[in-house]
């Protein structure tokens, strides 16, 4: 009897045949999509696919290598499924299990199920542990010229520069091509510090200070975002890392370390009084004034930042005013209350805030 | 003699039943109801993410949806629906007349129902919105004063107790009540899956029960297990939670492996290839699965040598899993494949689970996980395992066993329509999420700005989710319709191998009038062979032909 007889069921074969074909098609489409995703360039993005440091590049190379192996394994399995469909026997014909066929199947399981995975995984283990870990490790203390401390808050990033009075928020400046040692802490719940184009993500856990190296190949802005769910406004807890030429960075840091100059105009003076007498000062610090709050971000040099509320809105006059009146509109659930100010108080306050250079 | 009590009919018979089949059906009804709820929650989330800076759903509601969806699908759908199939089919497949402890069985079911009700009651007050992992200190009273978190704690206590009692019942039943002749090496592979699922539940659940109890006392009675200020540690939560959380993944997949191992041989018209290897690899996966929990914590401050250990143990799981996949393929190899709907879902399961398994190995490599952790890549990975894997397997099981449970066949055409909608919809929804994760989109964000390149992929994903939902509805419609109008199934519509097909469909209250003696892992084949040889009616071969056979 011809046990290898072709399908005699005629049209019933069609849907099943197309099952395998469509599976293959879908796998191909999927891979294509992943490649397309890998090609799109974005400026100031936060994609792991556009590394700008040795660390991120090493991780990405490891990922591409594994993906190539994964695609081979997946397509191999689907091809085996397709062949087993193609070579199926006719329905109803009792199958005589030939000895050599059993051996073939056993070989299949042993080769694909055991030998190949074990070999691949051992190679992978050594590459990952020896090659990549060293590159992404935080430097030993004292090896780097620069130290930065970043403290996660619900929902912004406090940035301090040890050895300098400089304190800022959400926009971290570092010198380009310089390893920067970042110490990571949290003021409340668990956050995770992640600038994908520069390095891995590291959790900020209460009671467990952590460290990370930031290094940027070239001048530019790199975006990051909190990666561990931290409450209502987790979605609006972004940050930007600016890698500046060293001279520009030094000038920026020197300016940031200074307290703010006393307000020049009478409006700004009146605005400062609004700031100090209304609720603002209980949450915000402005060095050079008596405002010493620690709940919200330091506003000493507010106008040196490009964005407000952890990159939620641009730092422009209209946005700043709208934010002061109704912060809950842009970032519902954040800790800043809307202020009930008269028209004059409001415009004076804005004038004062715009003077925080 | 007092005689038998009157048989109750109507809804009272369901409320008071201790019959494993009725309890199994109630499990399946209740869990599919929760599956619908969890699905609607998922669709609402996908609608909100369809475009950047969407304002359809506010952050509070979105994050409650995230939490409810994850909790519902895991604790109220996948784990208990498997208990439902187990309840219905374990006694039938091993030739028993009920579970070992029928009243305990009813208690397990009602604990599950009340757990679900307690949890969903929080919708009318303040639903929890900390994500289904409830990481301390976010879930502590300082940051989540809402009593939704407490509702979740009670859900874990109630469903956890339900699962542990159910698991003890399964273990007792499978160890003690198998038909004569059914040795360990003749047990159906689905029974192996349920047995090891039960052992895992008994081992893993106490850990999360302890964790949520500590959270409860932290929240209300001033203890400080997770509070650094009082000498506690938030990492303790993560260890306890994932010590349960990772075995939970295998709890949700091992019985499904069992279903697939039953379905593929039946529709390949071949004995399963490597029975012992499949059973042994199930046990190996369970053992290794207890040793990998910290791969969920690769981004915490942990020594590299510890990370390397958990990477290796995670790798090790790939080997028994690979053995299973190639055993299924080898079973299909040159089999007389019959492509009915259960086989469609089974083959879809293999392909999709393979993707989920491979992306799992990739994220077990900790340097790579440092980038992928907490991104949409992980969201894609878990859904390839839990939806492309578990849920497709559960649908395969539903189509396979529906004739036994209802006595009617489900409609083949509708089944195939449903499969293709689900297959296309599922892959459309979740494949692009791998790319989203690589492009830096974190999970659990209620909105995102344009300019990251995430817009198109999110829109594709949202459209896919609605196609997927349509596919699920077609199957539900098919099931409801077939209960009344389906073709009569008869005892054994698939020419299957295991004992549940020996009894009428649906089975009578006592399951079997006579329990045949088991002589191989495929008792129905023996019985059919004897019927053919002797030309006698099926009932007469229920007794062994000769003593000692």
What does this structure look like?
The complex is a heterodimer of chains A (357) and B (549). Chain A is an alpha+beta fold. Chain A folds into 3 domains: 16-136, no CATH class; 146-257, Cupredoxins -  blue copper proteins (Immunoglobulin-like); 266-354, Immunoglobulin-like. Chain A contains 9 helices and 12 strands. Chain A has a 5-stranded mixed β-sheet, with no helix packed on it. Chain B is mainly α. Chain B is globular and about 75 Å long.
Query: What value does the average pLDDT of chain A take?
Result: 83
- Which consecutive residue ranges of chain B, at least 5 long each, have pLDDT under 50? 541-549
What is the radius of gyration of chain A computed over CA atoms, rounded to a whole number of angstroms?
29 Å
Number of helices of chain A: 9
Task: Give the strand tally of chain B.
Answer: 0
Helix content of chain A: 40-55%
> Strand order within the widest sheet of chain A?
3-2-1-5-8
Tell the overall outline of chain B: globular
Give the CATH topology of one domain in chain B. Answer: Cytochrome C Oxidase, Chain A
- Poorly predicted segments of chain A: 1-17, 38-42, 91-96
Query: Cα-atom Rg of chain B, whole angstroms?
Result: 24 Å
Could you write a compact summary of the structure shown?
The complex is a heterodimer of chains A (357) and B (549). Helix content of chain A is 42%, strand content 16%.
Q: What tags apply to this protein structure?
A:
heterodimer; A: 357 residues; alpha+beta; Immunoglobulin-like; 3 domains; 9 helices; 12 strands; 16% strand; disordered N terminus; B: 549 residues; mainly alpha; Cytochrome C Oxidase, Chain A; 0% strand
């Amino acid at each position: 009897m011809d046990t290898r007889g072709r399908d005699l069921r005629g049209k019933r074969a069609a849907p099943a045949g197309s099952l395998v074909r469509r599976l293959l098609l879908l796998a191909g489409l999927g891979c294509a999509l992943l490649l397309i995703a890998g090609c799109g360039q974005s400026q100031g993005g936060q994609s792991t696919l556009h590394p700008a440091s040795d660390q991120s590049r090493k991780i990405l190379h490891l990922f591409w290598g594994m993906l190539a192996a994964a695609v081979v394994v997946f397509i191999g399995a689907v091809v085996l499924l397709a062949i087993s469909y193609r070579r199926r026997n006719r329905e109803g014909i009792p199958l005589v299990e030939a000895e050599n066929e059993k051996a073939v199947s056993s070989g299949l399981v042993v080769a694909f199920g055991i030998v190949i995975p074990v070999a691949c995984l051992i190679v992978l283990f050594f590459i990952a542990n020896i090659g990549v870990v060293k590159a992404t490790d935080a430097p030993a203390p004292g090896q780097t010229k620069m130290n930065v401390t970043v403290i996660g808050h619900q929902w912004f990033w406090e940035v301090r520069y040890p050895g300098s009075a400089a304190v800022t928020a959400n926009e971290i400046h570092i010198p380009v091509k310089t390893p920067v040692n970042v110490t990571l802490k949290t003021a409340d719940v668990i956050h995770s510090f992640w600038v994908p184009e520069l390095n891995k993500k590291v959790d900020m856990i209460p009671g467990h200070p952590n460290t990370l190296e930031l290094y940027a190949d070239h001048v530019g802005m790199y975006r990051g975002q909190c990666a561990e769910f931290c409450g209502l406004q987790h979605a609006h807890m972004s940050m930007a890392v600016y890698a500046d030429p060293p001279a520009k960075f030094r000038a920026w840091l020197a300016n940031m370390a200074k307290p703010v100059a006393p307000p020049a105009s009478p409006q700004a003076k009146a605005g400062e009084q609004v700031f100090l007498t209304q609720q603002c000062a209980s949450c915000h610090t402005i060095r050079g004034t008596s405002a010493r709050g620690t709940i919200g971000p330091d506003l000493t040099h507010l106008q040196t930042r490009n964005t407000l509320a952890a990159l939620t809105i641009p730092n422009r006059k209209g946005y700043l005013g709208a934010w002061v009146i109704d912060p809950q509109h842009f970032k519902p659930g954040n800790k800043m209350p809307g202020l009930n100010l008269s028209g004059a108080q409001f415009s004076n306050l804005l004038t004062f805030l715009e003077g925080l250079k | 003699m007092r005689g038998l009590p009157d048989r109750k009919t109507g809804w009272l018979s369901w409320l008071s039943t201790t019959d494993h089949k009725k309890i199994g059906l109630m499990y399946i009804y209740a869990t599919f109801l929760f599956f619908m709820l969890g699905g609607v929650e998922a669709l609402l989330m996908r609608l909100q993410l369809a475009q950047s800076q969407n304002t359809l759903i506010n952050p509070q509601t979105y994050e409650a949806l995230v939490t409810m969806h994850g909790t519902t699908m895991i604790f109220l759908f996948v784990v208990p629906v498997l208990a439902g199939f187990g309840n219905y089919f374990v006694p039938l497949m091993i030739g028993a007349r009920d579970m070992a402890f029928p009243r305990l069985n009813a208690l397990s079911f009602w604990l599950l129902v009340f757990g679900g009700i307690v949890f969903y009651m929080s919708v009318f007050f303040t639903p929890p919105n900390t994500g289904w992992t409830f990481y301390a200190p976010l879930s502590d009273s300082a940051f989540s004063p809402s009593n939704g978190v407490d509702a979740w704690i009670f859900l874990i206590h109630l469903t956890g107790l339900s699962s542990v009692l159910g698991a003890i019942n399964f273990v007792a039943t499978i160890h003690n009540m198998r038909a004569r002749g059914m040795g360990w090496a003749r047990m159906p592979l689905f029974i192996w899956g349920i047995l090891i699922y039960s052992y895992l539940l008994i081992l893993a659940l106490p850990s999360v029960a302890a964790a949520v109890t500590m959270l409860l006392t932290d929240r209300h009675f001033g203890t400080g297990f997770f509070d650094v200020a009082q000498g506690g540690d938030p990492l303790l939560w993560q260890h306890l939670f994932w010590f349960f959380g990772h075995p939970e993944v295998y709890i949700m997949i091992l019985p499904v492996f069992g279903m697939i191992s039953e379905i593929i041989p039946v529709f390949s018209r071949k004995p399963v290839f490597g029975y012992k290897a499949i059973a042994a690899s199930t046990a190996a996966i369970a053992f290794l699965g207890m040793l990998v929990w910290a791969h969920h914590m690769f981004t915490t401050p942990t020594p590299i040598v510890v990370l390397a250990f958990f990477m290796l143990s995670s790798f090790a799981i790939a080997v028994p899993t690979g053995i299973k996949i190639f055993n299924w393929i080898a079973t299909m190899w040159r089999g007389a494949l019959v492509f009915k709907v259960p086989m469609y879902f089974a083959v879809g399961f293999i392909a999709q689970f393979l993707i989920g398994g491979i992306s799992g190995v990739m994220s077990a490599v900790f340097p790579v996980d440092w980038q992928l952790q907490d991104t949409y890549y992980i969201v894609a990975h878990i859904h390839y395992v839990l939806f492309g894997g578990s849920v497709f397997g559960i649908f395969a099981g539903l189509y396979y066993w529906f004739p036994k449970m209802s006595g009617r066949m489900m409609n083949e055409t509708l089944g195939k329509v449903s499969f293709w909608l689900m297959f296309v919809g599922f892959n459309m929804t979740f494949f692009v999420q791998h790319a989203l994760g690589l492009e830096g989109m974190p999970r659990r964000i209620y909105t995102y700005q344009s300019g990251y390149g995430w817009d198109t992929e999110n829109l594709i994903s949202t459209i896919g989710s609605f196609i997927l939902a349509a596919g699920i509805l077609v199957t539900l419609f098919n099931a409801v319709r077939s209960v009344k109008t389906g073709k009569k199934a008869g005892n054994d519509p698939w020419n299957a191998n295991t004992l549940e097909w020996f009894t009428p469909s649906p089975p009578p209250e006592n399951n079997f009038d006579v329990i045949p003696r088991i002589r191989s892992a495929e008792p129905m084949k023996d019985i059919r062979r004897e019927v053919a040889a002797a030309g006698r009616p099926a009932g007469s071969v229920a007794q062994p032909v000769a003593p000692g056979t």
